[in-house]
Amino acid sequence: METEREMRNVSEEAYPMKSGDDLHSYSNNSDFQREIASSAYQLVSEAIAENLDIENLSPSATIRVADLGCSVGPNTLFAVQNILEAIQLKHCQKSQGLLNYQIPEFQVFFNDHSSNDFNTLFLSLPPAVRRYHAAGVPGSFYSRLFPSRSLHIVHVSYAIHWLSGVPKEVVDRTSPAWNKGRIHYSSASDEVVEAYSAKWADDMALFLQARAQEIADGGLMILIFPARPDETPHSQICANVSLIVLEACLIDMAKKGIVSQEKVDLFNVPMYFMSPQELGGAVERNGCFSIEKMRILHYPTSSHFQSLTSPRDRAQVMASQARAVMEGLIKAHFGDDILDQLFDSFSRMLEEDGLSALGSAKTLHCCTVLKRKTMI
Q1: What is the β-pairing status of strands 364-372 and 215-227?
Q2: Among the listed residues 25, 20, 38, 18, the one whose alpha carbon sits nearest the alpha carbon of residue 123
């Protein structure tokens, strides 16, 4: 099939989160993502209780869960534990009154790019008393990763906004979509926005087709992602405002001769923040899933961030969070010599103007639960 060949041949640019456990690591700068996942806990538990089909599983069956784009933890471990507890509760309720009831075995697959820091992830796994067998699965989630109909739940949190790569048109000088002087589609020309949108649509089609083959009938897929409110301009969402600030820092460094203007012209961030409406359209075109739940999550502010009263302190925290996510991408294009100076500049710009702009930007975090349709 043509679609299967496309999934095998997808060109993937891999820029994992900052590894290790140091000051700028993702492990130490992902409290925000964890609080988003925490706010989805009740919805995820409800979805498993109401929508997961486990009636046809034998008591001895192994239940398989995959977390795609897991990064280095501890967020992935927290999410997996919540999912397993909800499955176990449903299984116990289904098995009430049965003789020789056995707690099902669980197998959990942690997936990310092969360059992800799986060592840090597995070092942080719970001790031997954990109730699941763990395995790492390297590779792009825009391609097939698992055998057909082998998974019961797929979880993807704060990963699906990463594209498989930058749209080719935006770095082509001969294209109407050449994104000269910008690093993203925020406030860019219509041609650039359309190139990013088309790249997202192609990637999402591959993603849904791969998962449709891997998830068993009646299985669930849970997507937690930063989103653009329907009908809201791309330039007015919080994540894109942050990228506009980063863009200004790079342009300023080019003017000072710290980096070349050509390097800036050819640098683009492979992220696209879809709207709930766009996701609904992609699911409908795929045809293999039903949307069981789609909710806007409460926007969390960590207790640590709330305790910071100084704009400088808040800007520094946000700069560290951005560096944990973006360092690999920036290092691959510009080298590591500019990292400290770039994110110091990013922190200063946030303190001077960016915090107020972010405060007025629109923020949306969405949790969507899809169910694999039974194929006759």
Answers
A1: antiparallel
A2: 20
Q: What pLDDT was estimated at residue 277?
A: 96
Q: How many helices (H) and strands (E) does the chain have?
A: 13, 7
* E strand spans, the chain: 62-68, 105-112, 133-138, 151-157, 215-227, 289-296, 364-372
- Residue 140 near residue 10, CB atoms below 8 Å: yes
Distance CA 323, CA 178 (A): 26
DSSP SS3 for 101: coil
What would the pLDDT profile of 270-300 be if each residue is shown by its tens digit?
Answer: 999 999 999 999 999 999 999 999 999 876 5
How many alpha carbons fall within 13 Å on the CB side of residue 317? 18
Give bridge partners of residue 370 from the DSSP assignment: 221, 291
Question: Which pLDDT score, from 0 to 100, does residue 368 have?
Answer: 97
Whole-angstrom distance, CA of residue 355 vs CA of residue 248: 14
Any residues with CB less than 8 A from the CB of 310 and at least 6 apart, and which?
Answer: none
Distance, C-alpha 297 to centroid of its chain: 15
Q: Which of 168, 156, 228, 211 is nearest to 192 (CA)?
A: 168
End-to-end Cα distance, the chain: 20
pTM of the model: 0.90
Please name the residue that has the structure tokens 């951005």: 322
Asked whether the beta carbons of 91 and 49 are under 8 A apart, the reply is no
Distance CA 357, CA 255 (A): 24
Phi-psi region of 351 (alpha: psi -120 to 50; beta: other; left: phi over 0): alpha
pLDDT tens, position by position, 223-232: 999 999 988 8
Cα–Cα distance for residue pair 37/224, rounded to 1 Å = 7
Q: Give Dmax over CA atoms of the chain in angstroms.
A: 75
